[in-house]
Amino acid sequence: MARFITITLDLRRVSCTARLLDDAAPRTCDAVWGALPLTAPAFHGKYARNEVYGLLTELDAPEPGPENTTITPIPRDVCWFSFSGDDLSNPAYGYESESEHRAASRIVDLAIFYGRNNLLINGDQGYVPGNLFAEITDGYDEMVAACQDVWMGGARHETLTFARAE
Q1: Measured between alpha carbons, how far is 35 from 115 in angstroms, rounded to an integer?
Q2: What is the CA radius of gyration of the chain?
Q3: What's the farthest any 2 CA atoms get from each other in the chain?
């Protein structure tokens, strides 16, 4: 039986539903499902183009390891990325608290992709593959408009929440 999650940009009060890809990424799906609900500050991608993501520094979930990886996510894809604190502590990334990220032993980035021409690469690390674990099935057009507003209007005070769909 398929499992579904909701993904919400809380300040903008916009949600979409995504189906977990249990067959393709069972470890990642189980790690996310077991940790829900999750809320994190929202950011818009600088390098990947059409991406909105949340960074979780205290996630109580097992590390799934590489699984169903991609460096070219397409619209509707939902991905998991794992980083060490040192990976994201460069001030060039623009996060408010460099020390918060450096102190974290693991940072999990849960990201949604809402447009084409994404390439998961950055100047410091090269290719950054993510685990593709879900696909947005409902509420996509509204989420695209909200993600564009995060890009043009700013992410300040926005949060991204992942929860089990009822």
Answers
A1: 27
A2: 15
A3: 44
Enter the tokens of residue 88: 């994201």
pLDDT tens across 94-124, in order?
555 544 555 567 889 999 999 998 888 876 7
The helix/strand/coil state of 135 is strand
| pTM > 0.70 | yes
Give 36 or 59, the one with higher predicted confidence.
36
Domain region containing 68? 4-164
Pull the structure tokens for residue 25. 């990424």
Q: How many domains does the chain contain in total?
A: 1
Q: State how far the Cα of 96 lies from the Cα of 102, in Å rounded to an integer.
A: 12
The predicted structure's pLDDT at residue 98: 47
**CATH for 79:** 2.40.100.20
Nearest-angstrom CA–CA distance, 135 and 148: 19
In the numeric block, which tokens belong to residue 162? 């992942």
